[in-house]
Amino acid sequence: MKFYNLIIKYRFWLSIIAVVIGIILNVTGSAGFWPTFPLYFIGAIGLFSHFFIGPLRLIQEPMEAGKIEEVKKILDTIWFPNLLFKPVRSTYYTIKGNLAMMEQDFDTAEKHLKKSSSIGSPMPEAEGANKLQLGMMAMQKGDFKQGESYIRAAIRVGIPDKESEAVAYLQMCQIFINKREFRAAKDFFRKAKACKPKTQQVLEQVKEIEKYISRIPG
Question: Which 3 state secondary structure label does DSSP give 33?
């Protein structure tokens, strides 16, 4: 696995070296075209995979280890993201958006996540998580209409984990409380509790809303 990751990491330069060696052998007359064809073929495959698939496979380990600077360095090796295949490009912009959110650069995060959303994802859960993040950012900006639209879309396509699903329902609950549509608000609150969230932040949000919603008739 480590050897394969090294190949991915350096495949651009290895591909260039293979092509250059092939050219030198041809020019100097040391070998004809067909004997050097494997060098050209390996070089072409390496360059193709570098520009159209990218090095996103290398991101998982440093991301899990919290090595954000290393993740950024890997992403910086993608010089032309528009050349990436659509599923890879969507993942690229999602990661860029998540990194921007971690730095609280919400404008940049929104820009990248919208790009990812417009491209679409091969995995509905990833698309759902993306739309939920866009909805949360819209809510932070006070754009409840856009926030509701994104969060509804996230719920419709599916959200990957129960904690995030609970957050989505709680956001919808708050939206309908603001609309004074209390029956719908209570329904979304019940759905949030049914997700049985465990993280402290979400549980505190449940308790705060429960204090208010328990006083609403109906």
Answer: helix
